[in-house]
Task: inverse folding
């Protein structure tokens, strides 16, 4: 099924959305917010599924035409966001351009960090930031949203705790990140709030795209109106969602609503382009001696959209403009 | 005023607690949970304060004798936990014992990381962990709980967004952490869920202990029944709470209920002891060539308590036993 959150309060108001995104219906009688549905998934999900089936069949009372412009992030604030670096070419290129290497154990265990899990912008919100000099960048990702994950779950079992997938723009400040990583305590000031795509989709709804712990399909990215990349998301990865979840769950249980990103999508084949400007600049540095593509400036736009094998949008698009603080 | 959460559901049930911790009263009519009170602090706080005044005067209807054993963490799950390393002697000793140095810019800007913000244990919960071989340690801290903090707030202004303070045991796995920090993405598997003291206290309630962005008083720690440290918390720091909040708020607003820790308490004077076993072992390594104090084993106990100038407990104690997974 497909879920979304209408802009309302701190957590949005849960909607069930039809398969074709044409109509929607309030899920308030089942769960007022997506977080509350995830907190009580065993009870809520069969009822949401029944409402979804009714909506698709044109039988849902009080269904209305969906206006994507009214949607917030499906989960505007969450208790945990874990982001990985599962596409090796993304990390290898970035590090190579800086004259650094990937950690020795990069392929032995997932490289991950704990990120900011609140303030998620809606798909069409302006990205408001204090300075153009911070090296503003986007990162195209697909994030899993989990239920309650028990401590000690294994990689295969971990996939069974994924409730939804959502598009994610992991906003990054490239001028700040290298200095922050040198201090070894991870990302903080260099990772401001991120954005989520409008529609959260259950694994079963993905059909054949959801396989072996990965979401296949094509992630397309445009910056300033120019196509920057067209990346296959189900290949060229060192680890899948279950691996990432199991890695962190070695010593902690997860609260329902945890977001787990695989990291910026990237393919070994350079000709398909990239899923962020930093990697394009890294490739320019490696191949041509210097970065030429500028980072994002106020007024620039970013568009991210993931497509299935028939060219249908899977999660709806993220389409944002970079802007100064209001 | 003093607030606490009775064990109930995922977020606990908000209580107002009397100054002497003898009685309590449900705050459900004002806000069902501490998170909901923080979400709506302008409205909720004067009403909670009035209830607190009534309770202390013996005028609160439905007041009952407080049983500390019924309390959960005041905020069992939060949207953000930021932890600093503001006591230089803690970091210098740990790094020196490993043959490493502190980052060059350690005194220029706060060293901080984004930590796990859910799964906070109650003050007397067992710390259940998978293995004694992970180098189980505690860390004694006082954390601020903020309201909504605007992006760009300065260090002085940031102190005005602190709503509460609470005792925190930042559980750490010393065998995992050095390898994790080498990967530069910060703490993750090496930092399982932490614990909060039973009573959250407003800055005004701290009186003279809350001054210049710091909480003074004496933090006492006991391990296996032995006193490990008696640390002055308001001195020997490189940065105060406002500095830490402002550092991260350069590029993000905070969601209400953010926890901000100053890091493991530590004094330059070695004779007062330490606020975690890692630092004691570091001092043993530096002074005697090898660590001798063992990390925590299953069955071991930890006690943390912070005292005012008259020897009164400020936040109630954290008292936990280390135990294997159930």
Result:
């Amino acid at each position: 099924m497909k879920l979304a959150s209408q802009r309302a309060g701190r957590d949005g108001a849960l909607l069930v959305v039809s398969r074709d995104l044409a109509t929607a219906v309030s899920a308030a009688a089942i769960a007022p917010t997506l977080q509350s549905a995830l907190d009580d998934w065993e009870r809520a999900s069969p009822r949401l599924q029944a409402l979804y089936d009714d909506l698709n069949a044109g039988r849902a009372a009080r269904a209305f035409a969906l206006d994507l412009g009214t949607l917030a992030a499906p989960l505007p604030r969450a208790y945990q966001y874990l982001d990985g670096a599962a596409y090796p070419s993304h990390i290898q290129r970035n590090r190579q351009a800086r004259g650094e290497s990937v950690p020795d154990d990069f392929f032995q265990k997932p490289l991950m960090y704990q990120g900011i899990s609140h303030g998620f912008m809606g798909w069409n919100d302006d990205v408001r930031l204090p300075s153009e000099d911070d090296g503003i960048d986007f990162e195209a990702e697909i994030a899993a949203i989990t239920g309650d994950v028990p401590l000690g779950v294994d990689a295969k079992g971990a996939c069974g705790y994924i409730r939804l997938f959502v598009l994610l723009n992991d906003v990054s400040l490239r001028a700040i990140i290298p200095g922050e990583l040198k201090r070894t305590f991870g990302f903080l000031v260099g990772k401001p709030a991120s954005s989520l795509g409008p529609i959260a989709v259950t694994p079963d709804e993905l059909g054949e795209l959801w396989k072996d712990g990965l979401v296949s399909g094509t992630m397309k990215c445009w910056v300033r109106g120019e196509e920057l990349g067209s990346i296959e998301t189900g290949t060229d990865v060192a680890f899948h969602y279950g691996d990432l979840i199991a890695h962190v769950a070695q010593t902690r249980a997860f609260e329902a609503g945890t977001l787990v990103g695989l990291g910026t999508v990237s393919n070994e084949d350079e000709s398909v382009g990239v899923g962020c400007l930093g990697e394009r600049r890294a490739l320019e540095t490696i191949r041509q001696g210097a970065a030429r593509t500028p980072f994002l400036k106020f007024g620039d736009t970013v568009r991210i959209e993931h497509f299935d094998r028939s060219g249908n949008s899977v999660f709806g698009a993220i389409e944002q403009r970079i802007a100064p603080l209001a």
